[in-house]
Model the fold of this input.
Amino acid sequence: MASQIHFLDIKGKPLLSRDYKGDIPSNTIEKFPLLLLDLEDENSADYKPFINHQGINYIFILHNNLYLCGLTKKNENIMTIIIFLSKLITVLTEYFKSLEEESIRDNFVIIYELLDEMMDFGIPQTTDTKILKEYITQDYYKLIKKSHDHLVQPPNALTNSISWRKDNIFYKKNEAFLDVIESINMLINANGQILNSEILGEIKIKSHLSGMPDLRLGLNDKGIFTSNNNTSTPISNNNNPGTDESNGKNIELEDIKFHQCVRLSKFENERIITFIPPDGEFSLMSYRLSSTQFLMKPLILVNCKTKVHKHSRIEILCSARAQIKKKSTATSVEIIIPIPEDADTPKLTPEYGSVKWIPEKSCLIWTLKSFAGGKQYHMRAELGLPAVNDTENLISKKPIKVKFSIPYFTTSGIQVRYLRITEPKLQYQSYPWVRYITQSGEDYTIRMK
Amino acid sequence: MSMQSMSAALEKKIRSFLQGPRKGETYELRNGLVSQYKHERKDAIQRVIQAMTIGKDVSSLFPDVLKNIATYDLEQKKLVYLYLMNYAKTHPELCILAVNTFVQDTEDPNPLVRALAIRTMGCIRVARMVDYIEIPLSRTLKDDNPYVRKTAAIGVAKLFDLNPEICIELGFLDDLKALIKDSNPMVVANALNALYEIKDMNNDPELSIFEINEEIIKNLLLCLNECTEWGRITILTTLNDYSTTDQEESTHIIDRVIPQLQHANPSVVLSSIKVILQHLPNIPVTAQRQSILRKLSAPLVSLVSSSIPEAQYVGLKNIRILLEKYPQILSKELRVFFIKYSDPLYLKLEKLEIMIRLANDNNSALLLGELKEYSMEIEPVLVTKAINCVGSVAIQLPGSVIKSINLLINLIDERGGELIVNDSIVVLTNILRRYPGKNDLITLIIPVIANHIDELNTPESLSSYVYLLGEYPKYFSHLSDKLKFLIDGFLEFDSSLQLLSLTTIVKINLVSENNAQYSNYLQTILELATKDCENADVRDKAYIYWRLLSSSSSSSAKEKIILAKLPPIKTTISTFNPVVLEALVNELSTLSSVYHKPSFTFIDPNAYSSLQTEDGKKRLKTSKSNIEDLTKLAKSEIINNSKNENLLDFDDDEEGLNDNGNTNGGSASLLDELNDLFSAPAVPQKDSQAAASANGGAGSINDILNLFNTNQPPPAQSAAFNQDFSNLNVSTPSPSPSIPNTGTRSSKPSEDLLDLF
Done:
């Protein structure tokens, strides 16, 4: 697949490299900084995550001011290369907490080991951090102590058909914790109209279960998993999302994606989710509901008016309303309002909560620790502007961003009916727990006028 | 010779005398490597690897590092192995010293060590390693532990890379084929991968590496659900390469692959889509095919909701290909492609490409609203693209023309600025070229343009304006002043603008005869163009006009030539040449899918194998003839398939090919030429800017075309121009009822022209 993998700094200087095949000269990567410069120099629109130069294809992804770059001469599967590089980032992040120049320099030995284990002759092998941690670790002494007589062995799971779970896991108390997390992305225009909205749902499981348990998850799937292709009646727009209680409404989860432990053909044929879970935390499934069927009201509606007095000051009047059930409460609400870069001397008067001025990010952050359903609050801010200025700069197109989380509540109405746990050999008593939470996604934004 | 080696040895001695005892980093490391304490040795090895990582040459420590290879400490062993792999090439002799340890390690009780040893042996790319690898490799291929077997499977590919003859002679290929039926899915996947690698490296056409048959496919389908994500991709690749015409088999494959669309790994999803589309034509019932296609829409969209922007980008590029092949596949999705503020620019631009292809009468209002937002953004490239997209909507959907035009006019009024005015005017002109002569549109557009003439400063927008001036002179007030401006600035203009100004003034003179002022202008501009202008194209064109106007031909003949209408623009959305599209659909998810070029245009077929041995030359020869075949094939296909292609350009390329055909290093440039051949149809008549910028170079072509067309479009339409040229060729022999008319019309002007000379 990839002949070489390189870790490079933001200027394209190599930090660490691994040559898997030897079919590309090892100094080829030295051209990368120049190629990168060309990409960015000519016109920022020309930047693309791949370059073809003198028959060599450079495929790279950007992460924390680092480039991870794969080289190949062949017409390879580029999606696979990109996903592999991103998996590499995931694994290394799970090993070192964060992946940056510093952590690469400090951990080069283990990175080499991992690179060797994750890819051989350019072919991806294992990218599961949990399994890798079984036999590649920073703390070798521990491993050696544990198994003094015989050295570290490759975990069976590495080549089993169940490649994500090791044998002989034991817990005194067998528990499984389910988190149903729905992230809301919404694009709202200055008039409060929703342009685009989607729910990105995820079911996370923290499994503390012994042996090889077989799990079966039941959702309120009346209508959820059926009618995949038939037309479904969309939920009417004027429905308050807060009152959307599940009971078999025709919710159509779009493109459900499962962790590799889920038996996909069983799901395809019988619509049943069964799996042997990995140990510890993992993301069992994700789904998406987009506004084509599901236009909702904004959960947190923000209305912001700005008035610019040229050469003197800017006035901001902002109101926020929690359009959720009265019983529910949104917590850790943050409303991030962009302001001109050169604004200063803020006078901030929130009706509720607190407002902070973050000059280095040119924004105000209005924080409301708890925000009960149905309530509405106002905030007024005034900032000085420099006397000499050209007005063009004031038109910042940066949108307002809102962060929040609403516990005990899913917007789509998805519910876990049961989680059946069976371990044929050990036959223990087990306890499943379920939590629901709705939160803002990466892009819950309101455009400014 | 001996003198030389002696003096070299002497020099070495002197050097070591000077450097040896000094305390340097290398000295310290060497001391550490031979220390009597275990932990000091290990520490030294780590520091050696560190130095190696940052690019220092620590190859002089080779013998000392090698001494540490025999150890029970797995980590230390790995480090030494790593060092060996890196420097084996420079110290092949010393490397052989390590062979014994390797061979021993392949018999170690610990499978991790066995696998490590066989993996590393394969990576030491020294020719002599071949002599030692046979026994360990065949032993590990039959190892009880699947982890060792899967590593050994790849070892076969490594050996093939090093020495294909020996690899075949020792029967390793058959061993590998046997592993396809292994009980362990990971071993199966790696065996397949190794076979693929060998297939790519192989340059012996006689040798058949492996054939996928029904039985293997059955086995692989069973394996599919047991594999890791990477194994699944390999199996899916094999399923894609397997061609069958058997309907039942195809149905079975599709049924088995559909569940994979739900996999969390986008690459598994895209590979599954590819397999399904590959086998789809074998399904005879249309309704069934439609229902399968519908199942692909959500997975395709999911590629765009990945959290990795780079992966999203690849997804979008592939979606663009599929949209052209299956235009209905995402007809209900538009919102998912809306731009997010946090998207990197390259993603935003590609999303616009998709959005514009999804435009229909139902979503046009929504789309235009979004485009308006984007045209208010800060990034100039995005603004330009958004404005061009508004134009595409207007050109694509007659129902949205007025809305689009009003949007652009509002934009000019509200935001204004050089960029917006210039870009909008080019787009507005294009819209008028799509709906020529429509009074309501003209009265809407012309006044806006007339109000902003002072702000026009790009050659494209000025050309658009001058073209409109010639096309619709009645709608402009103070025409005389405007023409005077063209005369005054004529010598400073860009040559494309000079050509247009010339045409415009000639045209205006023809429609408003007997206007003394205009004929005055005509006289001036013809003189300027023929006497003071340096550009030969402009001069030639002026002469042609001059002679034509002063010839005795009837005025109706002159009008036919000078006032001939341009063909309306049909679309501003680029499409692929059908041949290219087929190739791209077959190469979905690969690099060609993101470059939007078939692989043979950018992949050097003889670049696969790394070892440039004697048979490298042989290979070069065969590949060259391959390229020539491909060139021929490509040429014939282009001629057959593209009517709106610039044939003159093509001739240029042919010459280039012949020139390069003889030179030795010609293969790369040959490919380049091919590249050009194909990139042209891939982005034909794209946006006006590209076409306009090409205009400078293609000036001479334009001129020749002008002879036939005798009509000056703005350079913005030079692409459409070529179309016109080929239309001329095509329409003459076409057996339509109007043939006598077209025949005479197209031949008459040229006869007239001949008369002139």
